[in-house]
């Protein structure tokens, strides 16, 4: 698996779309065995369902309702000649998005708005990252028909635009998103052009971004950052967050400090600021009397319940022992300025400031750590 959280999210999302495609294929085979006709492919309007006239049912006479009691509410009964037209697809139908016109711009719009798109399941900050990449892609090839794109055109835009100037990581990101769009178009929109381009890209090879030139955070770095944050800046929250992230690399930065999302986000929260709320960060209530932290963690395509023994993590234990019992309520990582959880951008800026002061090299990043042997099926073959 890549160390880049955005690319990891793309890989996980593509894997989910592949699972849907497998389930759809299984349903098609079952429908063929049962001789059930399935409507497939684009169509302007779903076929209307004609509802036969309901037979009259005599009203019960044994227990007539009192005149003062209103009749129980019930759906209106259609007239004998009524024709009801479905406004939503049946579960087994594949509906083309209304705004998909066969271009990459339409495909992007469909991916961002379709009710079956897994984009809706992404974290808010990841969604914003996707939108930035798609805005760029739309500006470059938005008017181009998906059916007109060839392997040669993919290679040209990769070399001349996306990875130009040695920006392999950027090229990797854009190619991964293009491949994700094609998978979505193939599996959700049932678009032949998307299926064709997805197959073409599956046979292409692109350089894989490497970690050359960057260093992994060491325990010496973590200790220096922790001490500097607390002693020089008075930012105990960053010292604790650094300790947790170093000892427990399964916890991403957003798992540790949380994130601020619009009030419309389905996640529940009791911490609200203006039109945003704080979600998904560590809370003291998740730590029991034995200093065991329990929470769900995203691993690959799944969320798993995991336990983290904070007592066995020396750097973490040092920082927690500095926190009075009276302050061990609510979010674990709270900004000293606002007395609210950090925003992601501000935390990263302050972390870099602390790291610079601590003498940590610029090429040492506070990125998620992952086991070196991890990978996903969506990363196999296309990047090398």
What does this structure look like?
α2 (104-113) runs antiparallel to α3 (124-141), α7 (219-233) crosses α11 (344-357) and α8 runs antiparallel to α10. A hairpin with a 2-residue loop joins β4 and β5 (276-279). This protein has 384 residues and is mainly alpha-helical. It has helices at 5-33, 104-113, 124-141, 151-162, 168-187, 192-202, 219-233, 236-247, 253-257, 314-320, 344-357, and strands at 49-50, 83-84, 259-262, 272-273, 276-279, 292-299, 302-309. The model is unreliable at 40-62, 68-96 and 368-384 (pLDDT under 50). The chain folds into two domains: 5-40 and 95-202; 219-368, Orthogonal Bundle (hpI Integrase, Chain A), CATH 1.10.443. The chain starts with a helix and ends in a 27-residue tail after the last helix. It is globular and about 65 Å long. The protein has a three-stranded antiparallel β-sheet with strand order 3-5-4. It is 40% helix and 8% strand. The longest helix has 29 residues, at 5-33.
Topology of helices and strands:
Blueprint: H1 5-33, E1 49-50, E2 83-84, H2 104-113, H3 124-141, H4 151-162, H5 168-187, H6 192-202, H7 219-233, H8 236-247, H9 253-257, E3 259-262, E4 272-273, E5 276-279, E6 292-299, E7 302-309, H10 314-320, H11 344-357
Antiparallel strand pairs: 1-2, 3-5, 4-5, 6-7
Helix pairs in contact: 1-5, 2-3, 4-5, 5-6, 7-8, 7-11, 8-10
Kindly report the CATH topology of the largest domain: hpI Integrase, Chain A
**Strand-pairing-aware structural class:** mainly alpha
Per DSSP E runs of 2 or more residues, the count of β-strands stands at: 7
> What is the CATH class of the largest domain?
Mainly Alpha
Q: In percent, how much strand structure appears in the residues?
A: 5-15%
The total number of structural domains is 2
Tell me which CATH architecture of the largest domain applies here: Orthogonal Bundle
Ranges where pLDDT stays below 50 over 5 or more residues in a row are 40-62, 68-96, 368-384
Biggest sheet record: 3 strands, antiparallel
Average pLDDT rating = 80
The global form is globular
Specify the oligomeric state: single chain
Radius of gyration over all CA atoms, rounded: 27 Å
> How do the strands line up in the largest sheet?
3-5-4
InterPro entries: DNA_brk_join_enz (IPR011010)
GO molecular function: DNA binding
């Amino acid at each position: 698996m890549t160390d880049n959280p955005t690319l990891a999210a793309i890989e996980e999302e593509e894997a989910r779309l592949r699972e849907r495609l497998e389930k759809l294929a299984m349903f098609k085979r079952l429908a063929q065995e049962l001789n059930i006709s399935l409507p497939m492919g684009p169509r302007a309007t779903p076929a209307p369902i004609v509802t036969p006239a309901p037979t009259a049912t005599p009203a019960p006479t044994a227990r007539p309702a009192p005149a003062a009691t209103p009749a129980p509410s019930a759906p209106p009964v259609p007239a004998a000649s009524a024709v009801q037209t479905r406004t939503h697809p049946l579960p087994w139908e594949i509906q083309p998005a209304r705004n998909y016109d066969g271009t990459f711009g339409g495909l992007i719009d469909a991916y961002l708005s379709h009710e079956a798109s897994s984009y809706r399941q992404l974290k808010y900050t990841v969604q914003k990252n996707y939108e930035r990449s798609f805005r760029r892609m739309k500006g470059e090839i938005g008017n181009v028909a998906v059916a007109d794109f060839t392997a040669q055109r993919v290679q040209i835009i990769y070399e001349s635009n996306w990875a130009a100037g040695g920006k392999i990581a950027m090229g990797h990101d854009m190619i991964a998103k293009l491949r994700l769009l094609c998978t979505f178009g193939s599996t959700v929109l049932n678009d032949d052009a998307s299926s064709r381009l997805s197959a073409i890209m599956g046979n292409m090879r692109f350089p894989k971004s490497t970690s050359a030139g960057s260093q992994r955070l060491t325990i010496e770095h973590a200790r220096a950052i922790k001490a500097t944050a607390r002693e020089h800046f008075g930012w105990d929250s960053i010292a604790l967050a650094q300790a947790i992230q170093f000892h427990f690399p399964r916890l991403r930065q957003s798992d540790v400090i949380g994130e601020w999302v619009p009030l419309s986000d389905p996640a529940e929260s009791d911490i609200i600021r203006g039109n945003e709320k704080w979600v998904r960060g560590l809370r003291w209530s998740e730590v029991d009397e034995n200093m065991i932290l329990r929470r769900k963690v995203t691993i690959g395509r799944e969320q798993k319940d995991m336990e983290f023994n904070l007592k066995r993590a020396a750097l973490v234990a040092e920082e927690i022992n500095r926190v009075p019992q009276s302050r061990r309520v609510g979010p674990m990582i709270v900004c000293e300025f606002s007395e609210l959880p950090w925003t992601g951008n501000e935390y990263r800026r302050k972390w870099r400031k602390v790291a610079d002061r601590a003498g940590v090299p610029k090429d040492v990043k506070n990125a998620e750590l992952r086991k070196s042997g991890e990978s996903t099926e969506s990363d196999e073959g296309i990047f090398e």
